[in-house]
Design goal:
With 469 residues, this protein is mainly alpha-helical. The chain has 3 domains: 147 residues, MgtE N-terminal fold (Alpha Horseshoe); 103 residues, CBS-domain; 171 residues, SLC41 divalent cation transporters, integral membrane domain (Tetracycline Repressor, domain 2, Orthogonal Bundle). 65% of the residues lie in helices and 6% in strands. The protein has 22 helices and 6 strands. The strands form 2 sheets. It has a 3-stranded mixed sheet. The longest helix is centred in the C-terminal third of the chain and has 31 residues.
Length: 469
Amino acid sequence: MTDAAAADPTPDPPGLYDEEGEIRRPFVEAVAQTIARGDAKALLELAGDLHEADLGALIEALDHDDRTRLIALMGREFDFAALTEVDDSVREDILEELPPETVAEGMRDLESDDAVAILEDLDLEEQAEILEAMSPVDRAALQRSLDYPEYSAGRLMQTTLLTAPPFWTAGQTLDHIHDAADEDLPDSFFEVFVVDPSHHLLGNVFLDQLVRARRSARLDELMQERRSVDVREDQEEVARVFERYNLISAPVTEGTGRLVGVITIDDIVDVIEEEAEEDIKALGGVRAGEELSSSVLWITRSRFTWLFVNMLTAFMASSVLGLFAGELEKMVALAVLVPIVASQGGNAATQTMTVAVRALATRELSSSNALRVAMREVSVGLLNGVAFGILTGIGAALWFSSPGLGVVICLAMITNLVAGALGGIMVPLTLEKLGYDPAVSSGAFVTTVTDVVGNFAFLGIATLWFGLA
């Protein structure tokens, strides 16, 4: 269980979601009617106690105009953390319509990582307007986080920490926690970071260990060393550290080890989901920022590039057919069967490419084991090629009453599935070596390989077998 879950065990409100996990329409309509009447009291009775995730789901389900009106009617009772639970485009639309003072006031009680998540997608001018409306202390803290590179640990971390010097005792530390003001403590925490006078990280003491210890025990006797992450480390690498060491939190340091923040597992779960979603979209030629709420024109522009690349590669594959135009005219059966070879090779290549791209992302595939993995995939392609070659060969022979045609398509199927397996792993590896994202670029090139090889192999073997030249 994460610290966030432990601190907020609120279950889903009964009846709020349907069997498919969607927020119930009657509830959304009731909220919309309340907003239309401008009845703030009734709105708070309906939505005032919702968890931030449920409130985010409600916001997305409402019509565009009702979203900012809901925030205005709820006033100080609106939890701005709900804006971290909605699509980026929805959040940007809402923030553009709200006065900067309202946003600044709403973010005052948020953890720094949630506040940064709200601000980071806005342009610099809008960020400046909101930051200007904040107190100098809050503004400086958020600006510092925003100055770190996008997708870095500095953007993910919370900057409100519980720290103590090594000479403090367990009793002193517990008394400090009890006496501290709420704004000086994180919303949820389960460890004390031990630091030297220069705020360099020495170790940590988990709260369960602190509570069990004698009150006279010093923190430097109780503390343990922590695996920290650098403030500029990429969020994907941070997620990998959490996975490798089974962490639920990690201190963030900069320079010579000065403690500047902490990242918790709830943020890493979001990172893992974002990275997986980005890879899935990239494999389909879709930009990472595309959401269901994105505009038609934005989606059209974002998809155009890879559709254009696919069109060019399709012309390359079709040009192979042009080389055998005379042979296709002499034997119509070839034109009927040629898509089968190319399609099957493309499917096999996509399977290999998907595994390769994911293995590259998780660092399981590297130059040290690339040859072994490539040979394994080629072997799989060969075995599947033989199996499907025999099946399609028998089918083609029976369909066109031509045993020779069955042999031709069998040989072509074997060739293309082997080529697809080899292309499916070599293309992503090559693209990564050249500095390109294999998830984004591999699909079009791998499909071209199987189309060209499949068409050329099938028509070339057929030309030689039947003497069509």
